[in-house]
Amino acid sequence: LRPSVPAAERLNAWKTPFAVEFDNKLQSSLPNNLSQSLRETISQALAPNTRSTYGSGILRFSEFCDKNGIGETDRMPASNLLLASFVAEHAGSCSHSCIKNWMSGIKAWHEINGAPWHGEDRMVQLARIAASKKGSSFSRPQRPPITRDQLISLRSKIDITDKLSAAFWALALTAFWGCRRLGELTIPSPGKFDKTYHVHKAAASFSLGNAGRPPSITIDIPWTKTTKGKGAKVVLTARDDNLCPVGAFLNHFLVNNKVPADSPLFSFIDDSGVCHPPVKAKLLAFCSSNFSPNQGKLFGHSFRIGGSVELLLAGVPPEVVASIGGWSSNAFLTYWRKLEDIIPLHVSQAYDR
After folding, report:
1. Which UniProt keywords apply (predicted)?
2. Average pLDDT estimate for 104-109
């Protein structure tokens, strides 16, 4: 029932008696090619990284059931009591977000196999509230933002006529001024490029602007964490300094002009003519290697956080910053840093109206 497969494949590969019966029902109701296509299509609704994260939840739940002698037929559909007990078992041993991801994985596993989900039951919710309180000590510290001064320092240490530097400099400024997650602009590893999820070179367009509007670049992102397949638009506005994302972007296109149009957007070509995609870990290593040792560790979200803080400090209205970064809820507020500067600035601007 539970073959050894990569975490991302557990949603489809790991079974219960209920799941086996559901598969049989599918196959008896539909031709084999249609039932197989249906399962594959449903699983593709989740991004690869999400499927891997959810696979961890299925593993933890299976281990919990094995440890406590829970029968195979009782694992799906899992009762409200079983789900609440699973949460309670891990309360105080990991963070709330960890348990939340595990429960999301178990829920997706149920949904893919046509099983009822009892995770919204009040008893389960109470267990999750208690786990959130007990797990507060496991929460990660706030990610530090990358700052404008750090970017200025980075620019002073690189040669943007170099192909790799041109690509990564444009990528860094796009992530910063566009307030984007790095996963929306990079790929996880070489060979993992997928146009369904990753932005390619032909997705960018340039606008010259006019007397009342500066030049800009628009990038159509095919997939985001929140909008899924609806994607999003990233709009970069020209600046009159060395941190201009439009200038960096155009320089990248000029220096790396031989990169094919269907390649990842921030790809570069080395001296031997080999095209390299923009891998997230390599960008972080590139930036970190050009920062001072005392500037601390750089994280993927540092660009998104730093860009939003810089725009807010520049007086850009919060609702515009939220739109730039693709925030549609109050989750945007968790990214605010330097509140002691941001709040007085915007309150004083309101007083002056």
Report:
1. DNA recombination, DNA-binding
2. 96
End-to-end alpha carbon distance in the chain: 66
Q: How far apart are CA 204 and CA 19, in angstroms?
A: 43
CA distance 173 to 319: 21
Give the dihedral sign, CA 228/229/230/235. Answer: positive
> pLDDT (tens digit, 9 = 90+) per residue, 310-329?
998 888 888 888 889 888 77
- The answer on pLDDT for 346 being more than 80 is no
> Are residues 68 and 169 located together in one domain of the fold?
no
In the sheet with 216-221, reading across from the earlier edge strand, the strands are 204-207, 216-221, 232-237
- The tokens for 10 are 């557990």
318: domain CATH number is 1.10.443.10
Q: What is the pLDDT of residue 328?
A: 75
Domain extent, residue 77, equals: 9-138
How many structural domains comprise the chain? 2
Look at the alpha carbons of 48, 49, 51, 52 in this order and tell me if their dihedral is positive or negative: positive
Tell me: do 121 and 31 sit in the same domain. yes
Q: And the tokens for 198?
A: 């990753």
Cα-Cα-Cα-Cα dihedral sign, residues 93, 99, 105, 106:
positive
Last residue of a domain, one of 120, 138, 156: 138
Query: Does residue 227 belong to any structural domain of this protein?
Result: no
d(CA 172, CA 337): 19
Same domain, 134 and 271: no
Give the mean model confidence (pLDDT) for residues 253-278: 95
3-state secondary structure of 200: strand
- How would DSSP label each residue in 213-273? B--EEEEEES-BTTTBTT-EEEEEE--SSTT-HHHHHHHHHHHTTTS-TTSBTT-EE-TTS
Question: Do 130 and 244 reside in the same domain of the chain?
Answer: no
Question: Across the strands, what pairs with 91?
Answer: 94
- The pTM is what? 0.76
* 66 in the same domain as 168: no
Instruction: Give the model's confidence band at 44: pLDDT under 50 very low, under 70 low, under 90 confident, else very high.
Output: confident
Residue 204 is given by DSSP the state E
**228 domain-assigned:** no
